[in-house]
Amino acid sequence: MRNDKIKAEPFDCMQYFYRAVQQPLIRCCISFTGHVDTVVLNRAVNLSASVFPLINYGFDEKRHCWIKRGCTAGNIVHVVRLREDGRKVSDILLNSSINIASGPQLNLFLLVDDDWDTLCIIINHMVSDGGGFKQYLYLLASLYSECEKNSGFSNIMKCSNNRSFSCLLRNLSFDRKLDILLTKSDAHIPDPAVYMPLEGNAEKPFIAIRKFDTELFFTIRNHAHENSASINDMLLTAYMRALHHSTGSTSITVPCPVDLRKYMKGNTSYSICNLTANYRCNIDMVNNESFDETLKKVSSQMRLQKKNDGCLKMPILYHMAFCILPFRIIRKLFYKLSPIPVTSYTNLGVLDSGKLGFGSLKTEDAFISTAVKNVPYFQVSVSTFENQCTMSSSLYGTEKDKNTVNELFDFMQKDFESLI
Is residue 174 within 8 Å of residue 61, measured between CB atoms? Predict the structure, then answer.
């Protein structure tokens, strides 16, 4: 690796291939009860590039590598005064994109109102998955806090720039890798019967958001514990039941992202990157079955998948192919061997309020959301902050589509409220 050129990893290119159906972006919205110091924020962003230089690079498809573009905080941080600009927070989240070729791979929009500020952070999924994005958010918050205390702060600890999947593979023995490769393939062809009934409108993006307050979140958490399930099992159960209600399908398969950092065995030198594979939850449902009956099926499936390493098979095969095959061949194989999920779900986990403190500012709310989908592609994103769960889904669609998504959220919420 030279300073002006960084090798693109297989997972980077996988997200590049996803551009066939969507712009690969992950977005975070952080609300404060005061005003952000723009000078401090710009310094923190510039310092963060010392730890995560890829944000200032652009992707070269012909050489499938990252090329330094010389971007700075001046290219990344944009101040928007809401009253003067006239746009809403949702407009910024939905309509802001990233030029993958020229960079930067990160955009920060500081939305200023009379009494409060909101920070919208948009990152290219090619450089980071949800787990890596949280790493960056915590890094930025920490740097902002240090710069606020000390205007001359510049003592950045250099971290590893190793973003390679091979670092994870080194933790697996040859026999274990062989066992994984011999497992039954988890590739899944999308089933049109589970497509949401959506119309689509390429000109009109929208985001539907549903927040579960602390009381309802505790209900979800307590019911999970009482049934030896996880909070994610609960959310996934409600989602699959809502899909059954919306589509009428009785056989539902939903891919569920798994953070492969759990295989790193305490190695903390890994840089911000993509390290995500999928479990696949497949259940057969009958009409009018209870929530707990569905939960039992879902939690049983998820426990079974967590006990084996089958989710690593496709990443290993993809990594091997990337080492020996031309880029154009890999692109063709990718769409054949790993079809892009149409109906999906992603739990981006807990945003740690202790690590998301921006100096003297009070962080009021935060959530992460994923790409704006083109119909028929549909995804529900989940993140949690301060015991409040936020579900979101972004689509290019009609007002009727937005109502359809909100009806799905209504169904999930009523399922949870019935447990109180």
Answer: no
Q: Which of 50, 42, 54 is nearest to 159 (CA)?
A: 50
Q: How far apart are the first and last CA of the chain?
A: 56
Instruction: Report the relative pairing of strands 65-68 and 57-60 from DSSP bridges.
Output: antiparallel
**From the CB of residue 353, how many other CB atoms can be counted at a distance below 10 Å?**
13
pLDDT over 80 at 159, yes or no? no
Residue 384 structure tokens? 């949690």
Average pLDDT over every residue of 155-175: 77
Kindly report the three-state secondary structure assignment for every residue of the chain: CECCEEECCHHHHHHHHHHHCCCCEEEEEEEECCCCCHHHHHHHHHHHHHHCHHHHEEEECCCCEEEECCCCHHHHEEEEEHHHHCCCHHHHHHHCCCCCCCCCCEEEEEEECCCCEEEEEEEECCCCCHHHHHHHHHHHHHHHHHHHHCCCCCCCCCCCCCCCCHHHHCCCCHHHHHHHHCCCCCCCCCCHHHCCCCCCCCCCEEEEEEEECHHHHHHHHHHHHHCCCCHHHHHHHHHHHHHHHHHCCCEEEEEEEEEHHHHHCCCCCCCCCCCEEEEEEEEECCCCCCHHHHHHHHHHHHHHHHHCCHHHHHHHHHHHHHHHCCHHHHHHHHHHHCCCCCEEEEEEEEECCCCCCCCCCCEEEEEEECCCEECCCEEEEEEEECCEEEEEEEEECCHHHHHHHHHHHHHHHHHHHCCC
Query: Over pLDDT 70: what percentage of the chain?
Result: 96
- Cβ atoms 108, 41 nearer than 8 A: yes
Instruction: Give the residue from 257, 239, 211, 216 showing the smallest Cα distance to 367.
Output: 211
Interval 113-146: pLDDT, tens:
888 999 999 999 999 999 999 999 999 999 999 9
Query: Given a cut of 60, is residue 2 above it in pLDDT?
Result: no
- Cα–Cα distance, 87 to 111 (Å, whole number): 10
